[in-house]
Amino acid sequence: MSKPLLRAGLVGLGAMGRHHARVLRALDGVEFIGGADPGGDPYGALSGVPLLNDVESLIALEPDYVVVVCPTALHESVALQLAEAGIPALIEKPLAHDTPAAQRVVEAFESRGLVAAVGHIERYNPALQSLRSRLEAGELGEVFQVATRRQGPFPNRIADVGVVKDLATHDLDLTGFVTGAQYTSVAAKTAHRSGRPHEDLVTVLGELDSGVIANHLVNWLSPLKERVSIVTGEKGCFVADTLTADLTFFANGSTRTEWDAISVFRGVSEGDMTRYAIPKREPLVLEHETFRDAVEGKADAGIVTLRQGLRAVMVAEAVLDSARTGETLPLALA
């Protein structure tokens, strides 16, 4: 006899919500029972699944879990409603609009023993998962630096936060994910170039408790869309392109360069370049499968915990505080 399907609901049917709806409709072991959004279903994402006006109506359907994809400013209120009703939740990143709100969400779910996670989707990108495994296996030796570039045009779906909490939280989280380390300090500069109330450009310099130096360049001002993470260490560097889920390794060379005019410009010599063949599944599907498994009680499911999501919000706020004060700010270890 097959086990009953998990009943899943969705809050938010905007530009991101439509993708979550698509995955939920096709997810094995799950019945998509309804989507709630007072603004309706502008993308036709539900395809016959009931459309509800508010969270209360969704809760009344008694879902086994709910995915929260509403604007960041609403994450706290929606999450607290779900926690009060005893419903597990997968909450899009960032966890909440500020640190106190994120802490309240963490406490609400933890105090009730409820499964909950944050949708830091880059952790499910095949290139970064492979990179993390290779770093853990020591293939790069000692890690020196993590540098990321995340830039592109402004997405019209964003209205309530700036580029730090929307985009840079990806890089702040993935850096800790692939290195297994935490930020101990950050220094940042931001800019407002497009006439919006929130920052649209940030550059961050951070140090991790492992001694690794991190650099992040993030903006909404470039016609070039780029999602690149470069990890440099004693044996060479890995380059992960999360747009294509490609991972490439550039090894330090062991062959001496005899052309003096070239060799003088190099700190290390060029070695072999390897692009790995990685199974490429959609990160959003992997994220949903992982959370479904956690709701079913699989302890090693590998979700991004609420406390990890809280940490990302705390580091993002330190970045904004540094940009405002011009100071390098310390961060206590979690």
Automatic annotation (TrEMBL):
Gene Ontology molecular-function annotations: nucleotide binding
Gene3D superfamilies, per database record: Dihydrodipicolinate Reductase, domain 2, NAD(P)-binding Rossmann-like Domain
One protein family per Pfam: GFO_IDH_MocA
Domain Gfo/Idh/MocA-like oxidoreductase N-terminal positions: 7-120
Ranges where the GFO/IDH/MocA-like oxidoreductase domain occurs: 129-238
InterPro entries linked: Gfo/Idh/MocA-like_OxRdtase_N (IPR000683), Gfo/Idh/MocA_Oxidoreductases (IPR051450), GFO_IDH_MocA-like_dom (IPR055170), NAD(P)-bd_dom_sf (IPR036291)
Protein name: Gfo/Idh/MocA family oxidoreductase
